Amino acid sequence: MRVDNIRKLIAIFILLSFGIITIIIVIRSNKTKGKDYVFFPEGQSELHLIQTDGKKEIFELYAKRHYPDRLGRYHLSGNVNIKIFGKADGRDILIKGESGIYEKDLSIVTIHNSEVRIEDLKIDSKEMVYTSEGFIKSYSPAKFEHKYGMGEVESFIYDLTKKTISALNFKGNFKREENFQVSTKKITFSYNENSVLMEGNSWIKGEKFYLNSQKLYIVFSEGKIILFKGIGNSEIIYYGKGEGKKIPEIFEREGEKVLKCDNFEVERDGDEFIARFESKIEIKFPAKRNGETGSGGADLAKIIYEKEKGVREIEAEGNVFFIDTDQKFKGEKVYAKRAEELEEWELIKAEGKVEFHGDVSFECGNFSKNKNIFSLQNERPYVMRDK
């Protein structure tokens, strides 16, 4: 009897133990449902991996601790660092974070509470993913900081092969010769071209101007803009007052000056700027008489501007017109320039049927300065020799 009782007690104990273990497992599985349940084994160790191409180091991964979980993934914790050697135009890329997860073959490494550094560029995000195919990605909001500007984006992809960073819904500012506020649906920074491409309802706002276009393309050199393009439904609003430089008199008037065109391009060579505008150019500006609006337009236009001397040459063609309070000009093609040492403008050439109505009114066919017909002085024509 005693033996039977002992056997029964052992059986009951085993059943109770099994039941308790089962309950614990069920409780734990319920608590971790929908979450990563990480098993922390004893003996977590430091991780320091270096990959080479046989001659030089190309990739380095470090963490104070690493350990596998029950799902077969490998976790990183404490001072997580990834270094990618020489991928940013010869510069190293450093990714830092508090924790992470990686595949055993290092094809994918995810870093949490992360930061990317490439010399003077820093990107912060809650999570970043590095892939061995050559990408750093974040589908979380990120902050960019650079010596030439800063901003926020919804997500970004850094292509290490093409050396480009593409980001969505960028809002921030550029710090160049003056500060610009910037907004665009998509922005792409290219290290190879030292350029920025903005696409989709893009605008830039400066101290005295506002500019928007479907696409904006900017190329930099030594911190200065050397090429600036607007592509598609471009609009430039100048709401400042020009002072201290030789510029067309309309820019010295108070009020907004608006230029609309399909595309524009501004190219810089030293202190000289060449601006080109094309297709459906429309200009609105405050007229000489208060309360009135002047206008102008052409199919194509080119302006040469010097930083210290102001506007030097203007050339326009295709349905050219200019209307101010007491002046009206029409022609198919016109070219004018400012005399080197003088304030007045000289009208050098006009083609097509030319009409001018002002202090002196006339209509004629083609004419040029070489024929000594007339010139513009203080924006008023005077007849030099009647033809």
What's this model, at a glance?
With 387 residues, the protein is mostly beta strands.
Describe this structure as you would to a colleague.
- The chain is mostly beta strands and 387 residues long.
- Among the domains are: 1-35; 36-140, Lipopolysaccharide (LPS) transport protein A like domain (lipopolysaccharide transport protein A fold, Sandwich), CATH 2.60.450.10.
- 8% of the residues lie in helices and 63% in strands.
- The protein has one helix at residues 2-31, and strands at 45-52, 57-68, 74-88, 91-102, 108-118, 121-131, 135-138, 142-146, 149-153, 155-159, 164-175, 179-190, 195-205, 209-221, 224-238, 257-269, 272-286, 293-306, 310-323, 328-338, 345-351, 354-357, 362-364, 367-368, 374-377, 380-383.
- The strands form two sheets. It has a six-stranded antiparallel barrel.
- Strand 1 and strand 2 (57-68) form a beta hairpin.
- The longest helix has 30 residues, at 2-31.
- The termini are far apart.
- The model is unreliable at 19-43 and 375-387 (pLDDT under 50).
